[in-house]
Amino acid sequence: MFKNSRTIDSLLEAVCQATLQISEVGNLPETLQRIVDTGRELLAARYAVLATFNEGEISSSFVYSGIDPAQAKAIAHLPMGIGLLGDIAEKKQTFRIDDLKAHPRFSGFPAGHPEMNAFLGMPLVKGGVVYGRIYLADKLDEEPFTSTDEQVLQLFASHAAVAIQNAHLIESNRADRQQLQQKNRQLAALDKATMAISGELTLDKVLQQIVDAARELADAQYAALGVPNSHGSLDTFVDSGIDPEISAQIPHLPKGLGLLGAIIKEQKTIRIPRISDDPRSVGFPEGHPPMVPLLGVPVIAGREILGNLYLTNKIGANEFTETDQDLVELLAAHAAVAIQNARLYEQVGRLAIVEERTRIGMDLHDGIIQSIFAVGLTLESTKLSLHTNPDDADYLLTHAIEALNTTIRDIRNFILDLRPHRFQGNLEQGLGRLVREFQANTMVAVSLSAQQDHLSQVPASVARSLFLTTQEALANIARHANAEQVLIHIDMQEGNVILRVSDDGRGFDMASKNYSVGHGLSNMRARAEDMSGSFDIQSAPGKGTQLKIAFPLTDLMTD
């Protein structure tokens, strides 16, 4: 390369420029390409190759310079690390050869490979670690490589090893950062998912929240949650990601056989890349969407299996990872608690209904039945006085009639509470009917204040909640308040529809335990929360009761 006229200064300058070029920070592929291009230019070679090695074998990283893409494409295959290249890789030393084809270990070129004669190859070493091999072939001046070329390449190779090491470190740090960011995103998603399922108390909604959260957490196309019965078959099956039209075409829900049955029986996570390759698979029913990888995780509380999470078709990958499994297993642990809480909530609700019915039965027995019994005694006394003392008989008959009217009114109040009317869709008409029947049954004056245009703007779901809440409030007043007047007011404020119901009845102590367990009040509170609204009640003994329920309209009107 270097003619006699070239000075040592120019040589050092060339080496300095070459090392500066390869020291520029870049990703690993860019760094390897820069090294091989710069090395070829520095040694004035026609061809240059940089190959990295793993455990003494040439890896897939094989970077070339001096061969145009069309010529490279015509080569039958990359060097396979046999013959002379195999010796270089194994012995990890420099080779300088004047004629490749004359070397005893030369095994020839693959089809389409350009002819090469002179050869110079050496390892790229830093701290005892070999980062690759650089090979140069055929100087431009057709001369063999010299000892000076070898020394220059050795100096260049040491800097190239440092450049590769730095590129490896940069990529490793980048990968670590990406992995950390991914971990943080997944943990944030897990936190969001657990908060969502823990904030829901209705069992059906809890199950749907769990399966939706699991699908999002693991980047799955489809997810499902099956709840097995005592016999191991699936009683409930909630899915996420499947189009309703496709779901409607599937002839039957999964029965808990095959892989799904294995998760139920073994109570262990199953993670496989291909469902069809697993001997436990029993296939899919007709019309079922294709599913390839599976991640199945049991939802267990103590020794009881509450359900199983099934995730299929990892988005952007061929299978689910160990990280996916860890995250879904964590979610399953939270899901078990959420399912138990929802079941307890439903059980408390059923107990509250039983308790309320028991109390109503006692009220009927202690109040209405005893009142009728008292009327019966009065009529017996009337019978005895009818012939001997007509005035007393007339007085007793009047008293019996009044008692019967009072009893009839009490019975109507119970009917009003126990058999609510169905909402027909027209809020104005529904509220009007409630007020008229309440006044007829209780003889309590009711004032209803609501603008017709406001009522007509209320969405159907909110209108139904307003009707049922008003009905519940009036039933409570009829049974407990002993009121003379009731005020009902509906208006709109700041994107909410506000219902206010107040009475001048006996009121109650809000610190009393009985206040917190009333079934009617809990229904109204739950209905408000289901609509993302608010519920407020104010009362005191002798001061009446005021209810305020707000339902948001903004989101519902834009759906």
Describe the structure.
The protein is α+β, with helices and mostly antiparallel strands and 559 residues long. Helix content is 51%, strand content 21%. It has a five-stranded antiparallel sheet. The protein has a five-stranded antiparallel sheet with strand order 7-6-10-9-8, sandwiched between helices. It has a five-stranded mixed sheet with strand order 11-12-13-15-14. The longest helix is centred in the middle third of the chain and has 64 residues. The chain starts with 7 loop residues before the first helix and ends with a helix. The N terminus is likely disordered.
Proportion of helical residues: 40-55%
Bin the strand percentage: 15-25%
Note the total helix count.
16
Poorly predicted spans? 1-6, 55-59
Distance between the termini: 76 Å
Radius of gyration (Å): 43 Å
Structural class: alpha+beta
Total number of strands: 15
Summarize this structure briefly:
The chain is of the alpha+beta class and 559 residues long. Helix content is 51%, strand content 21%.
List keywords for this structure.
five-stranded antiparallel sheet, 51% helix, single chain, disordered N terminus, 559 residues, 16 helices, alpha+beta
List the topology elements.
Layout: H1 8-22, H2 28-42, E1 45-54, E2 57-65, H3 69-74, H4 83-91, E3 95-97, E4 119-126, E5 129-139, H5 147-198, H6 203-217, E6 220-228, E7 234-240, H7 244-249, H8 258-266, E8 270-272, E9 294-301, E10 304-314, H9 322-385, H10 390-418, H11 427-442, E11 445-450, H12 452-457, H13 460-481, E12 485-493, E13 496-503, H14 513-516, H15 519-530, E14 534-539, E15 545-552, H16 554-558
Parallel strand pairs: 11-12
Antiparallel strand pairs: 1-2, 1-5, 3-4, 4-5, 6-7, 6-10, 8-9, 9-10, 12-13, 13-15, 14-15
